[in-house]
Write a structure and sequence with these properties.
This protein is α/β, with parallel strands linked by helices. It contains 11 helices and 8 strands.
Length: 345
């Protein structure tokens, strides 16, 4: 039934649109204790992130962890906070990415599309944004989690949250979820260009590709993340034309006592310094936007580990963020998934 043929008392029917919804991990609303506690509670209660039984994990989380960690995490966020906009850098960058995508999509498809972003944890929530898009008439949605490499604790939980939100809809839109893009040629080329842009013609003693870590057990249980990280590093090396052994794949942000994927970045850079590698660069190919793990952990804790061990020259290569090449990568992924739903403007 169209609005033209509906009876006078029929609810209004919006013209059909196609929605493009990008999703990132999330951010606290502020670095104060209660903002941090709310955010950490949602994040660390996700069974995709921490899969211990609730009877074992929740007392520890609600008692010890959420009593202490909001203070330390809040202090770290304060170091990088965008005070002008009163938001974290991740929020600023994700909004900038969305605005750039919105302009590119409008130029290509006109008013047939609506481009928005959501966060898996914190605000704007997946449910809130999905409700708004459906209310605006989106009957089809392309959902793009901003994780180049697939992991259950990132891509899968973003999809989970979208599906949970869809369960509450009376009239569900059609949805297409996007594949990870760890080996897309345009993504690898954008990474390589970002290295050249920062380093110029200089080749460091070692380029450390630092990916977010996960428990080693997840790999043995079938998660493909580790393998996809290794492939991204290998393809990046080939794109740069560098010899074997100059790029190391490492993992950061270790949490808890369980063994995680190795080598750990913070230990590895210290080992490089002790071996006499006095010039390293660090890149974070698993992050689509600079955030607490890159701006504070890599440029803080990991840099300090390297320099304290005797390293001399440490260069951080920023994430692709809202760089034009990165926006084109996203547009390429969207084009691959939007076929048949829109036509050129």
């Amino acid at each position: 039934m169209t609005s033209a043929h509906a009876p006078a008392d029929h609810p209004a029917i919006k013209p059909g649109k196609t929605g493009i919804l990008i999703a990132n991990l999330g951010t606290p609303d502020g670095y104060d204790y209660w903002s941090m506690r709310r955010y950490l509670n949602e994040f660390l209660s996700d069974r995709r992130v921490i899969d211990y039984p609730a009877w074992k994990w929740q007392p520890l989380l609600q008692g010890i962890i959420l009593t202490k960690r909001p203070f330390t995490s809040g202090a770290n966020y304060k170091l990088i906070w965008n005070e002008e906009r009163n938001e974290s850098p991740l929020m600023t960058i994700t909004r900038d990415q969305t605005e750039a995508l919105r302009a590119r999509a409008a130029a290509e498809w006109g008013d047939q599309v609506m481009v928005e972003f959501c966060m898996r944890y914190g605000n704007p929530s997946t449910r809130e944004v999905l409700d708004r898009m459906i209310a605006a008439g989106c009957r089809r949605i392309v959902f793009l989690p901003l994780y180049p490499q697939y992991a259950g604790a990132t891509s899968a939980t973003a999809n989970d949250q979208l599906f949970r939100a869809l369960m509450e809809q009376k009239w569900q839109p059609s949805v297409r979820t996007c594949d990870p893009y760890f080996d897309r040629p345009d993504y690898i080329a954008a990474l390589a260009d970002s290295v050249r842009r920062v380093l110029g013609d200089r080749k460091p003693g070692r380029l450390v590709a630092s990916y977010h870590g996960m428990p080693k057990r997840y790999l043995t249980e079938g998660d493909p993340y580790h393998c996809q990280c290794q492939k991204t590093s290998r393809l990046l090396q080939q794109a740069l034309g560098w010899q074997d052994g100059i790029i190391d794949t490492t993992f950061q942000s270790v949490f808890g006592t369980e063994e995680w994927l190795r080598p750990y970045t913070v230990q590895h850079v210290a080992h490089l310094a002790q071996q006499g590698v006095g010039d390293i660069a660090v890149i974070s190919p698993a992050f689509a936007a600079d955030c607490i793990e890159t701006l504070e952990e890599i440029n803080g804790e990991i840099r300090e580990s390297y320099e304290h061990a005797g390293g001399k020259d440490f260069t951080y290569i920023p994430c692709l963020n809202a760089d034009a090449a990165h926006i084109e990568v996203m547009m390429g992924i969207i084009r691959d998934n939007i076929g048949g739903w829109v036509s050129p403007a």
